[in-house]
């Protein structure tokens, strides 16, 4: 265990990175919004496979929250987060203020097409991916890491970021990492703390619905009825579904049959006031 260094300025982060580079170390970047759980920690471990030094960024990015979303109440647990990072010997935690990231006069926003307009998350959170693309472009430029790791948990986001890095000729390699789940299948998420005890009991049905739908498709059932059964099961369990869809895994393009694959199931649904997302390879 090595204590994680915490810095708040881009300049201090760049100084550390320059020091590592001069020693020949490769650098990995793991962007997060904090309230760290084992899913985030698995990304640190993934980054370690490519890099001898790992930076975890913790920034609750106001630009990716809609006006009626949970920016104000999003959990902020920096002290506990740094402790968790020290336990896995993450080298640096970059925890900037909003002013450090968006100083007075800041005037740029990255707008994307393609996977950012797939009519999935973007239909329900219209400004979300431009907020994500803007902060990720900034973090990639600030850190100049060799590799950056993002979770498949946010599958559309992962494809958006891969597209962003390609389109803007960024040199950082973008890697995806599998979703870490609780033993009952619920995808780990900083937002799971919002769930009441009763909602927490129901929440694993989301993953179960994906599993059952994937099983039906693999068994040869046509996509539409398989999706309809999945939607019905979730509604029955008490979810208010935003979307439950199957798409091409690489492009998020709509598909007509399993032959159009590889396929990915993607879901977003509300349980009470909490919005959960998940996805699964078919
Ligand atoms: P967040 O702090 O929620 O913005 O997430 C930061 C990063 O952690 C993103 O790349 C997420 O996709 C990833 N992530 C979130 N939850 C999980 C999980 N359960 N397993 C793996 N990665 C995750």
TrEMBL record:
Which reactions is this enzyme annotated as catalysing? (R)-pantoate + beta-alanine + ATP = (R)-pantothenate + AMP + diphosphate + H(+)
InterPro entries from the UniProt entry: Cyt_trans-like (IPR004821), Pantoate_ligase (IPR003721), Pantoate_ligase_C (IPR042176), Rossmann-like_a/b/a_fold (IPR014729)
Q: What residue range is the signal peptide?
A: none
Record: residues binding ATP: 33-40, 151-154, 180, 188-191
Keywords in UniProt for this one?
ATP-binding, Cytoplasm, Ligase, Nucleotide-binding, Pantothenate biosynthesis
GO cellular component terms, alphabetically, are: cytosol
Q: Name one GO biological process term.
A: pantothenate biosynthetic process
Residues that bind beta-alanine? 64
Q: Among its keywords, does the record have Ligase?
A: yes
Q: Which residues form the active site?
A: 40
Q: Which family does it belong to?
A: Belongs to the pantothenate synthetase family.
What's the protein name?
Pantothenate synthetase
Q: Which organism is it from?
A: Methylocystis heyeri
Instruction: List the gene name.
Output: panC
